[in-house]
Design a protein that fits this description.
Layout (H helix, E strand, L loop, with lengths): L11 E10 L2 E11 L3 E6 L6 H8 L7 E6 L2 E2 L4 H5 L2 E4 L11 H11 L6 H10 L14 H14 L4 E5 L7 H16 L3 E5 L12 E6 L2 E4 L15 E3 L3
Parallel strand pairs: 3-8, 3-9, 6-7, 7-8
Antiparallel strand pairs: 1-2, 1-4, 2-11, 4-5, 9-10
């Protein structure tokens, strides 16, 4: 999978991003630069703001302060364009219980303006080991639901992956499939941000691990398959 080489770099550029809920500031000035071809894991306690950060980058939430660009597109002013560049795997699978896996994918393809060709749908389901499952989603295990949610991203591979606890409910095979998708995305010039409590599972595909604490991002300098963090061209500043 080759990402459009005409897309501007960097993949993610965040400057002093802030978000509050009521009077509580969840993010207090996050600054992050992620180049094309890079993946980063973000750690943090429950409630530290990992999901909030991903939802901001996916344009589900709007920042109260700061700015961000995804492949050169402004997060607020060009939100529709940003949505066309990102793919999100969140906690909620968002599936239709009374449909089969193929029917869910067919509907998702139509909603994305794609032609739901049966051969294409089957190939995608084969990639997540659901091609021969005929039951309706209501009978699925948690892991099977996560596989189907991942399959939706494979219909039209995004440039930026925003993965929120992507290894939850997955066995070793499911973890390998997530990491293969991340590796393929970054190898093609895309990027990925993985919010996780389990960075070791992402260790083979991420360049750096960052800690989100008290609303700010900081590098974990004692972790990383390259020996130090950050790695490559990734730059992080906790902000003020």
């Amino acid at each position: 999978m080759q990402i459009d080489p005409q897309l501007p770099a960097p993949a993610v550029e965040v400057e002093e991003l802030c978000r509050r809920f009521g009077r509580h500031w969840v993010l207090r000035g996050v600054t992050l630069r992620l180049e094309r071809g890079e993946a980063v894991a973000v750690l943090g306690r429950n409630g530290s703001g990992k999901t909030t950060l991903l939802r901001l980058l996916a344009t589900v939430l709007r920042p109260h302060r700061g700015a961000a660009r995804i492949f050169g597109r402004d997060l607020v002013r060009e939100a529709p364009a940003v949505r066309g560049l990102v793919g999100v795997l969140g906690h909620a699978a968002g599936l239709y219980e009374d449909l089969t896996a193929e029917e869910n994918l067919r509907f998702a393809a139509l909603m994305q303006g794609l032609k739901p060709e049966p051969a294409r749908l089957r190939r995608v389901l084969e990639e997540v080991a659901l091609a021969d499952v005929t039951e309706r989603v209501r009978a699925y295990s948690a892991g099977m639901r996560r596989r189907l949610a991942l399959a939706r991203l494979l219909l039209s591979p995004p440039r930026l992956l925003l993965l929120d606890e992507p290894y939850a409910s997955f066995d070793a095979d499911g973890v390998a499939r997530v990491n293969a998708f991340v590796a393929e995305t970054v190898a093609g010039g895309g990027a990925a941000i993985i919010a996780t409590h389990d960075p070791e599972r992402a260790g083979g595909v991420v360049d750096s691990v960052l800690l989100l604490d008290q609303g700010r991002l900081e590098p974990l300098t004692d972790w990383g398959r390259r020996g130090t963090v950050p790695g490559g061209g990734l730059a992080v500043d906790g902000g003020g």
